[in-house]
Write a structure and sequence with these properties.
Layout lengths: L14 H5 L12 H6 L6 H12 L7 H8 L6 H5 L6 H15 L4 H13 L3 H23 L8 H8 L6 H5 L5 E2 L7 E5 L4 H5 L1 H13 L2 E4 L9 H5 L3 H18 L3 E4 L2 H7 L2 H4 L7 H10 E3 H8 L11 E6 L2 H4 L6 H8 L4 E4 L14 H4 L1 H16 L5 E4 L2 H13 L5 E3 L1 H10 L8
Parallel strand pairs: 2-3, 2-4, 4-5, 6-7, 6-8, 8-9
Antiparallel strand pairs: 1-3
Bound molecules: iron/sulfur cluster (2 copies).
One iron/sulfur cluster binds next to helix 2, helix 3 and helix 5.
């Protein structure tokens, strides 16, 4: 098997973090890839062992070595499960950066990844690309109905079936740059509008702004903002992530906000890590730390505000709340979204079995590893279906798309919303979970 060099000396995975692993194996039952394949090297413990071997020059970056890291979802369930406090996040990010620098991928893989990273973090390009993608997605769903879907190669199939449900309206929708607080302002907040989020889920951004304003926040959503860099960071493209992060920090500094509010779990977890991302860059370290300290998931921001100002009206529905991994595991935010939903009269909020296991979305994972992602999606969809929900709520655009696609494959047509949409509808007195 062809080999490559082991890790170089630039930003290697931390020896101290690796040595914190005591090999107890408590993380194994919560690792999605270990659940799927029962392979030690596809578990957190096995992957940490491989990192250590590469760090010590005992393992080369062979295709099989790389495969064990490509299949990791970066879901951070292992971080929640680990009694020794192993910080797997920085370990996998730096390992992936080493792989990106040193592992020569095949032409098709390289081209597909280059295409994704030249497109997804750039809303202007994405806007042009999404219209035909949406049409292709519609055609593909039609092909699915007549049994032709299996003729399409798996990666292309995933790309098309997971294409966001965009319309001309959503592609051109804009939220206001400035929204005044209802009543005296309690806080000045900035809202990250995101890359995929602003084009496919602009209604979620609008709901976020509506609720924050109703609760007494002056809301700024600077039009100059771009992608936060989460997709690039989680895939080991650290230079691209840093460039996008610098722009994001600068935009919200100019806006002069007290908090930067995020409604996409993957983006929030990345922005809370900016301090670490620039730890070795003196020109940005302090700015990045100060920025990260102001970042809040929208549920955290609302709970922090304290007593609610806007009355909630009833919505009678059974809601399955799915914990997005980058909210629950990476940020430790579980109680706040549930508290927001529990404050809506009439909602019956339930949690599916195996709530700690990833749905298979995981950034670009369901695009580059479609088979494993589909298996995890089906597993998640079955657990959700067992609870017979009227609506599914989850706080990440990738999970929304993944669970919708997984449900469709099993014949379910759930209404899937961001929790903030339910809060918005409750405040506005809409008695149904969504308008579709
Ligand atoms: S991040 Fe998720 S998939 Fe990767 S090792 Fe940890 S639990 Fe397993
Ligand atoms: S639970 Fe933590 S210490 Fe135990 S094997 Fe997993 S990563 Fe290592």
């Amino acid at each position: 098997m062809a080999g490559g060099p082991a890790f170089d000396t630039v930003e290697t995975p931390s020896r101290a973090l690796i040595d914190a692993c005591v090999h107890c194996g408590f993380c194994l039952p919560t690792c999605p890839t270990y659940l799927l394949w029962s392979e030690e090297m596809d578990s957190p413990r096995g992957r940490i062992y491989l990192m250590k071997a590469a760090l010590e020059g005992r393992a080369a970056l062979t295709p099989s070595f790389v495969r064990h890291f490509d299949t990791c979802l970066g879901c951070m369930a292992c971080v929640t499960a680990c009694p020794s406090g192993v910080q797997y996040g920085p370990l996998i990010e730096r390992t992936r950066a080493q792989i990106e620098r040193h592992h020569p991928r095949g032409l098709a893989d390289r081209a597909f990844r280059a295409f994704l990273f030249a497109l997804l973090p750039y809303p202007a390009r994405l806007r042009f690309a999404l219209a035909p993608l949406a049409l292709a997605g519609w055609l593909l769903r039609a092909a699915d109905h007549v049994g032709l879907l299996r003729l399409v190669p798996p990666r292309l199939r995933s790309l098309l079936t997971l294409a966001p449900p965009v319309s001309f309206r959503s592609l051109t929708a804009r939220v206001a740059e400035e929204t005044p607080a209802a009543g005296p302002a309690r806080l000045h907040v900035g809202v990250l509008t995101g890359c995929v989020q602003r084009l496919a889920f602009s209604h979620v951004n609008q709901a976020t702004i509506n609720v924050l304003a109703a609760e007494g926040c002056r809301v700024s959503a600077p039009a100059a903002q771009g992608c936060c860099g989460a997709l690039a960071l989680h895939a080991g493209r650290i230079d691209q992530a840093r460039a996008l992060a610098r722009d994001t920090i600068a935009v919200f500094e100019r806006a002069g906000v007290d908090r930067v509010v995020v409604n996409a779990a993957g983006c929030g977890s990345c922005m809370k890590e900016y301090g670490d991302l620039f730890a070795d860059d003196p020109a940005w370290t302090e700015r990045a730390r100060a920025f990260s300290a102001r970042v809040r998931d929208v549920s955290e921001a609302l709970v922090e505000l304290g007593e609610s100002r806007a009355p909630r009206h009833p919505i009678r529905a059974r809601v399955v709340y799915h914990d997005a991994c980058h909210l629950a595991h990476a940020q430790g935010v579980r109680a706040e979204p549930r508290a927001l939903l529990a404050a809506i009269p009439g909602l019956d909020v339930v949690t599916p079995a195996e709530s700690e296991i990833c749905c298979g979305s995981a950034g670009i994972y369901n695009l580059v590893e479609p088979e494993a992602a589909a298996d995890l999606g089906a597993r998640k969809a079955r657990h959700i279906a067992a609870l017979q929900p009227d609506v599914v709520a989850t706080a990440n655009p990738g999970c929304l798309l993944q669970i919708a696609a997984a449900g469709r494959r099993l014949g379910f047509r759930w209404r899937i919303v961001h929790p903030i949409e339910l809060v918005d509808r409750s405040i506005r007195g809409e008695s149904t979970p969504n308008s579709q």
